[in-house]
Amino acid sequence: MSNRKGPPGSQPFMKRPDNTAFKQQKLPAWTPTLKAETVLPFFFLSGVACITIGVLLIITAAGVQEMKVDYTEERDCADCYSLRLDRAKSTSDCACTVSFSLSEAFKGDVFMYYGLTNFYQNQRHYMVSRDDAQLVGRQYNLKNPSITCVPFDKYKNGTPIAPCGAIANSIFNDTLQLFYHSDKNTETPVPLLKTDITWFTDRTVKFQNPSPKDNLTAAFSGTARPFYWRKPVYQLSVEENNNGFVNEDLIVWMRQAAFPSFKKLYGRLNRTQEFNDGLPAGNYSVKISYNYPVGKFKGRKSVILSTVSWLGGQNNFLGIAYSTSGAITLVVAIILTVVHLKFRKKPLGLEEE
Amino acid sequence: MSSDFAISRFKHLSKLLLVHGHWCYTRLANMSLYFFYKNVAYVNLLFWYQFFCGFSGNTMTNYWILIFFNLLFTSAPPVIYGILDKDISAETLTRLPELYKSGQNSEAYLPSTFWLTMLDAFYQSLVCFFLPYFVYADSDIDLFSFGTPINTSALLIVLLHLVLESKTLTWIHAVILIGSGLFYFVFALIFSATCVTCNSPANPIGIMEKYMSDPVFYLVCVLTTIAALLPR
C-alpha cells in the first residue's frame, strides 16, 4: 500500500486502468431486439422469395428427362446374373441385351450413366485402399505401393500392382453399347464419347501416367494388373490417350461415391448425324457385356440416360424444399402478425375507456 | 495476495457485484451452452452419415477441415461473445439490484435450458445433413464433394446462431464473425487447389469448384434453421 501517499481522497493514478472504450466495456454496440416491425417483414420477404425460387427450381427440374433401366436380371441378363454368382466361371464371357423405348426425344446433351445399388464405396477400409502418390505417376510409389493398399498391393511373388488398392480392383467392367432402332430391321449404334467425362483437375493433375508417357508398356514394366482385372492398366482402352492411370473410366470409378446407391458417368452422346439434337424418341436396346457380379452383395445394376440442366440431373427435391420452407415461413409470418395485432389492440382499448 | 478481482475503493464493490457479477454469470452460462450446442451440432452431422456408410466410421470431410472447424473457424466468435456481451446495460443493473437474483437462482443455466439447447443442436444437424442428402441422393456426387456444402452450411449456421444469441453486437463481433467465415473459404480454396497427395484418402483437389452450382442450396439450409431459431 506504499503508493497511497498524497492527500486523502486522491486516486492512485498509476493503478487506474485505461479509460478506453474496450477496457471500460463501453463499446458502441447494436442491440438486436426482435421487434415485430423488423421480424415480420423479414419473414414475409423470405417466404415469398423462397416460394419463387422453389417454383423456378421445380420448373427447371421438370425439364430434365431421365430414363433408368435396371438390367440386373432383365430377360436374358438373368442367365448372366446366375453365371456370375459362380466365381469359377468369372473369365467366361456373357452378353445380353435389354430394350426400352423413349416416349419423348431427349433434346440437348445426353449423358449415359451406369448405376449401382448397395455398393458401399464409402466404407472406411475400402476408401483408404488406394495410393494417390502412385496414381500421380511417381516412380517410387509405382514400384512400392503404400501399405494402405494391403492386401491388394503385391502378388505373392512380390510384383507390385498398379493401380493398387481395393477401389481399383473392383472397377466396374460391364461394357454397354446403345443401339437405336429406327425401324424393325435397322439398328444404328449410338456414338458415345468416352472422353471428357471426368473433372478437369482429375485428369490433368491428380492422375498422371508414370514416365515415359508415350511408351506405357515400358512405363508399367515390373508391375502387374490388379487381381480381378483381365487386362493390364495400359491396355484399358483402344483410344490413344485414354490408357494407363489417365483412363477416364478408371478416374470416374476412383472418385468414391458418397452413398451406397449411386450412378457414375459412362459416356456422353456424340451429337453427330441423326443424333444432332439429342436422342430421338423410339426404340432402343443396350447390348451388355455382363461382367460385374452384383449377386453376392444383392446389388442392382442399371443403365441411365439423362439430360442435364444448370441444376444437375433429375432431382425435384430442392425445388420442393424451397417451396415448403417458403410456405412454412409465410404461415408462421401470418400467425405472428395475427398475434401481434391482437396484442396491440389491448392498450388502445384501455385508452378509449 | 492473489485474487480474481481487486478493487481500489470500497464504493466500486456495488458495481463489481451487480454489474460485472451479473454479466460474468450470463456470459459464462451462455458461452458454455453455445459450446455444447456447437460441438453437438457438428459431430451429429458425422453421426448421421454413419447410417449411409455402413457404420464404418467414415467421415465425409477430410481431417484438416474437421480439426480446423473447431480450432480456427469457430473458436474466436464465442470468445468475443464471452468477453463483450451485455444482456442488460450497466445503468439498469445498478438501478435494479434485484436483477442480481437471476444469477443466484441460476436462471440462465437451468437443466431445461441445457436440454433445449441440445434439442436445437440435434434439429439443426438433422436439417443440415438431410437437406443435402435428399438433394444429392442417387446422383453421381462423390464423398468429399458431399461434405463440402455440409461443412459450409454448418459453419454459417453456427456463426449465425451466435449472432442471434448475442444481445449486443459491436464492430469487433462483426470483424471476428466475418473474418472466421472468410478464413474458412480461403482455407478451403487453397487446400483444394494445392493438396494432391498430402492427405490420403481425401486429397480434395478441385472440390471447391463444385461450389458453382450450389450457392442456391446453402440458402435453404441456413434459412430453415434460422426459421427454427427465431421463435426461440
UniProtKB/TrEMBL annotation, chain B:
SUPFAM superfamilies: Calcium ATPase, transmembrane domain M (SSF81665). The chain crosses the membrane at residues 33-51, 63-84, 114-137, 143-164, 171-191, 211-230. It is a multi-pass membrane protein. Its main location: membrane. Residues 1-232 form the P-type ATPase C-terminal domain. Keywords: Magnesium, Membrane, Metal-binding, Transmembrane, Transmembrane helix. It is found in: Membrane. InterPro entries: ATPase_P-typ_TM_dom_sf (IPR023298), P_typ_ATPase_c (IPR032630). This is AT10D ATPase. The lineage of its organism: Eukaryota, Metazoa, Chordata, Craniata, Vertebrata. The gene is Atp10d_1.
